[in-house]
Amino acid sequence: MKFWQEHTQLRTVLIAALFIAGLALVFIGWSMTGSMTGLCLMLVGLALLLAALYLYNKPFSDEKKKSTKGRTPQ
């Protein structure tokens, strides 16, 4: 999808927002040691960090499927 390659400013803002929110949730959850709420906050923060990483890598992903159907190894 070329959307993320064409809209670099939007991608940059989303990555920064997800990264900051994810780190904040991880640190807030970390400070709530021994609480299940803290663990849930840390997991949500981890999900946001992974979403930021996904958005960062999306423009570099190969659109063509790397399948070997019908190809013979050389």
Q: Which residues form runs of ≥5 with pLDDT under 50?
A: none
Strand percent estimate: under 5%
Tell me about the largest β-sheet. none
What distance lies between the first and last C-alpha atoms, to the nearest angstrom? 31 Å
Shape label: elongated
Helix content bin: 55-70%
Quick structural summary:
The longest helix is centred in the N-terminal third of the chain and has 24 residues, at 8-31. With 74 residues, this protein is mainly α.
Molecular structure report:
With 74 residues, the protein is mainly α. It is built from 3 helices and no strands. It is elongated.
Give descriptors for this structure:
single chain; 74 residues; mainly alpha; 68% helix; elongated
Give the helix/strand layout.
Layout: H1 3-6, H2 8-31, H3 36-57
